[in-house]
Amino acid sequence: MTTRFTKDHEWVRLEGDIAIIGITQYATEQLGDVISVELPDVGKSFKKGDEIAVVDSVKTAAEVYAPLSGEVIEINDGIEDAPQLVNDEPLAGGWFAKLKIADKGELDGLMDEAAYAKHIA
Amino acid sequence: MAMNQQGRPTRPNTNAATGGYADTISGSRGLDQAEPLIFERGRTDLTGVDLPEPKGVKTRLGGLERKSEIGLPGLAEPEAMRHYVRLSRKNYAIDLGIYPLGSCTMKHNPRLNEKMARLPGFGDIHPLQPQSTVQGALELIGELAHWLMTLTNTPCVAMSPKAGAHGELCGMMAIRAALDARGETGRRRVLVPESAHGTNPATAVQCGFHCDEIPAGPDGRVDMEAFKAKLGDDVAGIMLTNPNTCGLFERDIREIADLIHEAGGYFYCDGANFNAIVGRVRPGDLGIDAMHINLHKTFSTPHGGGGPGSGPTVFSQALAPFAPVPYVVKKGETWHMVEHEEEARADGAEPFGRMVAFHGQMGMFTRALSYMMSHGSDGLRQVAEDSVLNANYVLARLKHVMTPAFDGTCMHEALFDDRFLKDTGVTTLDFAKAMIDEGYHPMTMYFPLVVHGAMLIEPTETESKSGLDRFCDVLEGLAQAAKSGDTARFSSAPVHAPVKRLDETRAARSPVLVWQEPQDQPQAAE
């Protein structure tokens, strides 16, 4: 169960054909304290690269893009009530949504941890 | 300790953290007066106005009349006035010092403008007066319109938009109307450079378009190859600011205009930075189709809490028929305001509608024309020259200690990134807060987004060289302090301001928007 990363600082973790997505530690450091997160509706489908969520922070507002194509089957209501979770544990409790993905092949275009570390260095 | 439990502790005479000083009995220190909230200054069970109870009034409210107290603080006039004057003394204003907010053009507002705006023929009239009784005011609107069209070389201007973003909306609605008139309802994609003001994409979306972002090249300007690749028959137009928000002139603007026109789209130019080119460049010559002009920036009318904005929008020949009502025309010797769409249609126009109830910001029109007339065409040209000169002076003085975001000279604002703070533990936010301790309003920070930790400084032409030197001395000193490891100066700044470092995160996450009477609490021993 490896985590893959996009150049726009989203992460995705695959469990079977379910992808859990969120934003990276680096992204939260750049954004500063997160104030609110606008999550997608369950049941809605997104293509890879579509805007899937919006993050508001003390510094700015940023779009979050779907790292893979798929249908939203669950969202993390917890971060709507407690957005600090995104800052505190971006790769765990601060996840955004679960997608039922259509094409595992899309994962190939994403970076592994080492490549992402190099990308943000 | 008596604390306001709703966030900011406001009671005086506690300690420095609560807004009052601990070392005086009153909580004030000399002329720095502690000031609580107006609800704490006044009492909600008193009124400052003593009116006799009306007699023999039969209520017609059907039992819906208020039965309980309204709960507003009651203060006499001098108390209410002193409250706000005391608060104003804790504020920062363009009349107190340089206000270097990039992208905002916070320049001095000459007092002559104020005198003109208060003339009874402009200041004491009513929008519903018969037009025959306000001929002078209509002539002033017509005269200002004439000069705005002359300075931009355009054939039409809508005077009514009430701010920059409202002007953008006016321009994009005209573009939408023009496309609809052509029957091209499929053109819904608007190209917006990534350094654009946030209002640009917001306006486009509001008008039913969707945005497509054009990346910037390494020189901070539109990447022409990326722009060309995005052209197509679904493109409604482009929204471009020139000079752009990186403080750079878009050199390829003529080619951009030609290409967008060839592709069947329109060119919306954001005129927010017109101050840098007024009298030197006529946007109409560059091929723009619509552009708003911020009177409150370029033409020195007050803004930023000091007054409302005003955003007249000029149009090219192609969009002119779609401009909104109202507009003024001269018929013989008489000035006339065309107020209704039917009348405009009878003149052959196709207005997309109306944006405001009346005619726009009359007070701002008077101030702007006063500014134009007192400067003259040569004076306005010098405004642009000196604003660019001043920004380049700041850039040249600071480029050795701070890091300019782009090489070369700038236009009216100098843009730095946060590379010079790397590994110091000091952030752009800390740096800006430390400026408050030094008595300066910070520059615009973290914008434009294309630059990391951006600091955008727009000195405007109204600062003198000696004033800029003092300002640059302070920034130089702060940059050196950060580099030498003096992080204490930054980490909790501002420490000398009436209100210390605020918890902005908590304020945004759990805002307290309504005052509630604090519960009585036992006094803790100090």
From TrEMBL, chain A:
Q: How is the cofactor bound?
A: Binds 1 lipoyl cofactor covalently.
Location of the Lipoyl-binding domain: 18-100
Q: Which cofactors is this protein said to need?
A: (R)-lipoate
One family name in Pfam for this protein: GCV_H
Keyword Oxidoreductase included in the entry's annotation: no
Q: Does the keyword Lipid metabolism apply?
A: no
Q: Which CDD domains match?
A: GCS_H (cd06848)
In this entry, which stretches build a coiled coil?
none
Q: Which residues carry this modification: N6-lipoyllysine?
A: K59
Q: Which domain of life is it from?
A: Bacteria
What InterPro entries does the record point to?
A: Biotin_lipoyl (IPR000089), GCV_H (IPR002930), GCV_H/Fam206 (IPR033753), GCV_H_sub (IPR017453), Single_hybrid_motif (IPR011053)
SUPFAM superfamilies documented for this protein: Single hybrid motif
Q: Which UniProt keywords apply?
A: Lipoyl
So what does this one do? The glycine cleavage system catalyzes the degradation of glycine. The H protein shuttles the methylamine group of glycine from the P protein to the T protein.
Family designation: Belongs to the GcvH family.
Stored HAMAP family: GcvH (MF_00272)
Quote the subunit structure annotation: The glycine cleavage system is composed of four proteins: P, T, L and H.
| Protein name (database record) | Glycine cleavage system H protein
UniProtKB/TrEMBL annotation, chain B:
Q: Which UniProt keywords apply?
A: Oxidoreductase, Pyridoxal phosphate
Does the keyword Oxidoreductase belong to this entry?
A: yes
List each copy of the Glycine dehydrogenase C-terminal domain by range. Answer: 385-483
InterPro entries with a match to the protein in the record: Aminotrans_V_dom (IPR000192), GDC-P_C (IPR049316), GDC_P (IPR020581), PyrdxlP-dep_Trfase (IPR015424), PyrdxlP-dep_Trfase_major (IPR015421), PyrdxlP-dep_Trfase_small (IPR015422)
> Residue spans with biased composition (Polar residues)?
1-17
Could you tell me which residue ranges the Aminotransferase class V domain spans?
A: 195-304
Q: What is its EC number?
A: 1.4.4.2
Q: Where is this region: Disordered?
A: 1-28
Q: Reaction catalysed by this chain?
A: N(6)-[(R)-lipoyl]-L-lysyl-[glycine-cleavage complex H protein] + glycine + H(+) = N(6)-[(R)-S(8)-aminomethyldihydrolipoyl]-L-lysyl-[glycine-cleavage complex H protein] + CO2
The role this protein plays is: The glycine cleavage system catalyzes the degradation of glycine. The P protein binds the alpha-amino group of glycine through its pyridoxal phosphate cofactor; CO(2) is released and the remaining methylamine moiety is then transferred to the lipoamide cofactor of the H protein.
Q: What is this protein called?
A: glycine dehydrogenase (aminomethyl-transferring)
- Origin organism of this chain? Glycocaulis albus
Q: What gene makes this protein?
A: gcvPB
